[in-house]
């Protein structure tokens, strides 16, 4: 090797060594900072954590507990009411037009249309049977009635009101 090749090799080795030391120093600095600075927690992650570790139930004791229990019951009722179909209306016409009419206006799946002839045998079984079949569902030789018309968000009262409306509007 020539002299200038050796000189280049020495300088190049020193630069590589210096870069390796600098890299190692930066890695150690990053590791140190990582252990010293706490990680930022996003508000949504903190909220999810709080919800996950929150107590499952609550203890209601005394007058304060009774008030808290009443407030919790009211909140639960409001939440349940917000999930009731059609805003909780018991107007059979509204429910029929939005749900039941899809089958009972056209006879889809052998659903009885709003005519006296289609309902005579069913009416003979009594209203309670009609209510039960509408609420729980029914599979018969003539066709299938899904529970609550296929909308489980309906209350029993809404289904009964709709059955009553249908019976009152037979032609």
UniProtKB/TrEMBL annotation:
It comes from the Bacteria. Residues 87-170 form the Cytochrome c domain. Keywords: Electron transport, Heme, Iron, Membrane, Metal-binding, Transmembrane, Transmembrane helix, Transport. Pfam families: Cytochrome_CBB3. One of its GO terms (molecular function) is iron ion binding. The chain crosses the membrane at residues 12-33. PROSITE patterns: CYTC. The keyword Iron applies. This is Cytochrome C class I. It comes from Pseudoxanthomonas taiwanensis.
